[in-house]
Amino acid sequence: MIPIARPQMGTEEKERVWEAMASGSLAQGPRVRAFEEAFADFIGAGHAVATSSGTTALHLALLGYGIGPGDEVITVPFTFIASANSILYTGARPVFVDIHEGTFTLDTHLVESAITPRTKAILPVSLYGLPAPMPAITEIAERHGLAVVEDAAQAHGAAIGERRSGTWGAGTFSFYPTKNMTTGEGGMVTTDDAALAERVRLLREHGMKVRYHHDVVGYNFRMTDLAAAIGLAQLPKLPGYNQRRRAIAGRYDRELRGVLTPTVPAGVTHVYHQYTIRVRERDAFAERLTERGVGSAIYYPIPVHRQKPFVALGYGNETYPVTERLTEQVLSIPVHPSLTDDEVATVIGAVNEVAAALGPIQPEVSRP
Ligand SMILES: Cc1ncc(COP(=O)(O)O)c(C=O)c1O
């Protein structure tokens, strides 16, 4: 079976972890600092603060902007639940806005009508490795005095023009094993705002700048040096991984038939955390791919506003037509960098065969 993800661990990762273990620095230490500096440099952001996960990175970025009870944060319902949960953790209320049909990211045309006097931030998600429309979002946010937190958990190295995800307002990343690069578990907040970075650092460590002197109620959301050691070995490999993902995606774009393939706006660098197609009869489609030895996955089978905890909070009656339609149609196929050319050919053959058998999907008419 060709799996949907295959994390890569080489000798560099093993050696660096051994070094960290031998050094006795196991929790947050010099490797975390070195990884932060290298990641900030790679992204092109002034500051990077490592955290225990992408979820805690989101939580801290929002807290760093002072978001709390009584506030509203605009985000999308078509995402991993952490994007919205992080808003709930602060005591604020997520306000959902639908996504754009072509790109799976926040539809900027719908944002302004969702802004109320309580709105404090916009939290777009750069889903599947395609940056959300950050320039337009930033322009709206600036006009209304709102913070911007880009959930770039899936977008390491993605860019709009020359500007990478994670350089608008605050960006947050995840280093979960299936991501474009990993530290096992881990996350990062990136920003050019020195004061925000400082607050995130403080909150990450129990509000403590001077040992055992606590200025605010904080958390233990630290990354370990063992995780940072893996990150330091992975980061130099990320451009090559992304290049391979993009090459595989290029073949899919050219050779897949009878399915809808991703739309990438001009000048945007998609890093294909997922290559997500839209298909007819999705469950049967996935089953038939499995029969042909091709793994696939649905990201995500239920939109956030219809997940049980959100329904319990009174969400779930609103409808987001694009999200709901795409939820029924999306299917991610393997695009990880360790796929061989033969495996890529097998995926293409299987998808085309199944699409021919089940019938092609027709695109909905949508805004450009
Ligand atoms: C869009 C999105 N946001 C947030 C997260 C949370 O990251 P983590 O799993 O590292 O907490 C993830 C990763 O799973 C994600 O895909």
In short:
By secondary structure, the chain is an alpha/beta fold. It contains twelve helices and 14 strands. The strands form four sheets. A seven-stranded mixed beta sheet has the order 1-9-8-5-4-2-3, sandwiched between helices. The chain has a three-stranded antiparallel beta sheet with strand order 7-6-12, with no helix packed on it. A two-stranded antiparallel ribbon has the order 10-11.
Task: Give the overall pLDDT as a whole number.
Answer: 97
User: Largest sheet at a glance?
Assistant: 7 strands, mixed
What is the end-to-end distance?
37 Å
Helix content: 25-40%
Helix-strand makeup class: alpha/beta
Outline type:
globular
Radius of gyration: 20 Å
Give the cofactors and ligands: pyridoxal-5'-phosphate
State the helix count: 12
Helix and strand pattern: HHEHEHEEHEEEEEHEEHHEEHHHEH
Question: For the largest beta sheet, what order do the strands appear in spatially?
Answer: 1-9-8-5-4-2-3
Strand fraction equals 5-15%
Low-confidence stretches: none
Number of strands: 14
